[in-house]
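Friendly challenge for the regulars: who can give me the structure tokens for this chain first? No prize, just bragging rights.
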Amino acid sequence: MVLEKVRIQNRRQADLQSAAPGLVDLAGSVDNLWYLHFLTARPSLRQLAAMRPESLLKSKGVGKSYAAVISTWQKRSRTAWQVNTRNKAAMMVAVAHHAWKVAESHRYYEKKQAEGKKHNQALRSLGRHRVRVIWSLARDHRRYETR
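First reply, four minutes later:
Bragging rights claimed.
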């Protein structure tokens, strides 16, 4: 039982170290109760890195000293923000153009809108679908064949 707990803690510590470098070092151990409360305070590390001091102090088990430790990490944290807005805009334009020019893509777009998705959501869904198709073609070393 003890060995199982140690194995789980080591795996959890390695996962957290890769996801948020420096945060585990500040906490000292992944077993700290305040640390576990802090990690579960928000659904993503990106949101944890942006928490305000007032919100930190409202977290269970996080006092002023731990809040200071966390804000030290927040200042140095480098989480993935996906801020390549030009690339995102270009992808949206390309997908929208494809949806209007290719009948099969237009049917997929209309199907997504019939499911209740808004315009941008339907375009992003079509974009994800296209990326899956391109990835499967590259993975299987096949050429694209029109039907």
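Residues 85-139 form one domain. The chain has nine helices and no strands. Your move, everyone else.
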